[in-house]
Amino acid sequence: MLLSALLGTLGSVSLMAQSTNVYSQNAVGYINVTIQSGYNIVSCPLVASPDNTLNTLLPNSTGAYKGWKVYFSTPGQGYTQIEQGTKSGWVAGGTNTINPGQAVFIDNTFSSNVTVTFVGQVPYSASGTFTNTLVPGYNLVASVIPASGDLHTNPITAFSAVKGDKVYVADPVAGYSSPGGIYSVSESGWISDPIVPNVGEGFFFENNSGANETWVETFSVNP
Fold first, then answer.
1. pLDDT tens digits along 34-81
2. Do residues 169 and 146 both lie within one domain?
3. CB within 8 Å of 136: residues ≥ 6 apart
4. Boundary residue ending a domain (68, 97, 121)
5. Is the bond preceding 194 in cis, omega lying within 30 degrees of 0?
């Protein structure tokens, strides 16, 4: 089944960004992601070719992203600056990956927004489920598939959490811990819900349960 044919059946769940066209029965498509000036949490929910390295997703051989800083996450610990754009590439070689389900912090040091395009296949699972393991502490994550919607109520990306867990969303100026950008879980559910990441956008998840938690998404590109 064409992925575009599914769009009409998902109601308020947006499977692909509005600017996305799907042009193959193999669920190959592209997404346009606007990276604002300042801090962003960015993901790539597509399997790119030949890989999902920074060199493939954000090629910088001509200095297109000179001065940009990219922060990769260490699960449970937070993030560290791994890459910085130069006039001819990435300082650390651009070999770090942004696979579906992962996210990175990008500091766009330009004064204006930049739109980047990611091209690839929608991740495939024979069982129709995708599991993202969230370790105790901080996790920089995103939907494994190109879907958006309320993290808690979206029937595809339904996100479970326990009391004390927190989600931090990005703020272009302050980073992620901006006023109004932190959503906690109380005994009765999310505080300040809804949390609605866009396609190609990630978030910090603070797992305070003391044990691994799982984010299970259910979707199949097959008929």
1. 999 999 999 999 999 999 999 999 999 999 999 999 999 888 887 787
2. yes
3. 76, 207, 208, 209, 210, 211, 212
4. 121
5. yes
